[in-house]
Design a protein that fits this description.
Number of domains: 1
Structural class: alpha+beta
Helix content: 10-25%
Strand order of the largest sheet: 2-6-5-4
Number of helices: 4
Amino acid sequence: MRLFRLCRQKYAELTGYGAKRTGGRWNRKGISALYTAEHASLAVVEVLVHLDRTEIPLDFVFLEVSVADEYILALPAAESSEEFLKRVYQTGAEALPPNIVGFSVPSVVVPQDRVVVLYSDAPLHATAVQATAITPFAFDPRLFTTPVR
């Protein structure tokens, strides 16, 4: 499975440290998690919904990640996976089966596409998850202007 993470250059790594420091939708503070998407465009949209558009950093990159499908637990919609997601939010990799490094779930922003959350504390993470490329990314300025009608 090829995954995409849009992030600042200094966070283009696989540790999940940023999410550990701040917490996120699928992890509490103190739990390492790496948020990725199955499509590059979804990774962009997931960042856009959280971005302060008055100060757009110029050092964004795509971190491409490779992980075999067999290491990812595919979940249905979040509502139907609520109990599991509560456990993984609280305990991270401890809630996963030993041969799983993360899970995929439909995106809240684009439910037709999936986000994949990887836990760097999962026993197989170091061998199952590989960074395959880092490429510069610049937002198209049209995303931040109001169209003239």
